[in-house]
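Review form for a predicted model. The reviewer records the input and the model, then writes brief findings.
Reviewer: anonymous (R2)
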Amino acid sequence: MARKTVTIRAVLFDFSGTLFRLEQDESWLSDLTDHGGDPLDIEAQAELMRRMTAPVTQVVELDEEHQHAWENRDLDPALHSKVYLEVLRQSGVSRAEQAKALYDRLIDPGEWTPYPDTEAVLKSAAGNGLSVGVLSNIAFDIRPAFTERGLDTYVDEFVLSYEEGAIKPDPEIFRRLLDRLGVAPEHALMVGDSEEADGGARELGCAFALVEPLPTAERTDGLLAALREHAAL
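Model under review:
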């Protein structure tokens, strides 16, 4: 029996590791020193960036106060700042002013790099009449990352966890975006880099495509391939 073909009418994209990635800039880390006052070596710098951008996994042991902040970081900018400054401290960034400067880079949308096919996939989806939404567990406004590059033209709705009071994989946050787009779950495709968080869209009946959060130079057409695989382009 032939498989039933579902028409995709909307594509929902995650932000970090999906459409954009926080890429290491050597200048951010060049002046950092460890607890002994020595410059961080290359290995320590690479681990620091991994910890700053890990999508879901907790990367350090936390006390009760900071554990609460970690679990609620994407609902409250103050908690996000609190726990990431603690992660940086535990990762060897001993001076508070250095940690704050590095954290400010993390939450600056202008510092994030779009994947090579981000513009093409957004433009193609919108051009083909699909509704486009961006759905992110995040504690800062990512819209400037799009507007600075003219990509906001192709996005119909942004749904950000800290504004909504809900985080993926809670079905409610997916439902809100779908309602605003006016699209039923069975006609939507969620694209993201986390099986745990983004894959929660399947509970409502959405299709789901997983992309790897690789460096932008290593993943040149993952978004386009995901949409083609689901007949969304």
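Findings: The chain has two domains: 10-21+112-229, 26-110.
Further findings: The mean pLDDT is 89.
Recommendation: see findings above.
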